[in-house]
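User: Round two. Same drill as before: sequence, then structure, for each protein.

Assistant: Same drill it is. First protein:
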Amino acid sequence: MQEYSEELINSFRQEASLMKRLRHPNVLLFMGAVTSPQRLYIATECLPRGSLFRLLQRNTAKLDWRRRVHMALDVARGMNYLHHYNPPIIRCDLKSSNLLGSFMTFFSSGIS
């Protein structure tokens, strides 16, 4: 049985509380949170296409310029929403493994 520090539990609760308020087509939709003695879980919408990182690693991935631009605009829209949220949400680790979905939905978790 794993014990969690009070700091980690509070951080988890804050993250879940923030995620449940975020509503934007380009930000991952929060569905709920669960705690158990072994794990802390955040449930989100299912995006079966996976991350941009995974898409780029596949040799079969053909991204024409139109799709690339659409994906970049989706990321920019999601980031703009987060930056204009009150208070602003600033991501310091925007990377391809945090970009998900069917074009791009931004995963906004700050918990590792």
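Second protein:
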Amino acid sequence: MRWEFDTHSTLEAMTQPALKTRGVAYWEAEDPQAGQPCQKIVYIGTMDAQLFALDADTGRKCEAFGRHGVVNMACAWKSPRTGWACLAGGRPTANWWHWTCIRAA
């Protein structure tokens, strides 16, 4: 095993009646630069609505993503603007993505 990461998440379903996993998503820079962090990223979503971006080589959080490597996805549920996050041919996007959600960790 190269590395492991513990999200320290609560294993309780917030939006669905049963615990589920959707797996992870992977992104790689078009021309990865050796020695630079987060040129390859593993995205992990948790049951408590956190979206983590981890450096695929080291397992460390990508500090430039969200707030120190994490976006609080539950922020959108409390916002009047609702939408869904998705991975579509690249990095994750969300149609409700706005600064208050990115900063709320």
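Residues 24-103 form one domain.

User: Perfect.
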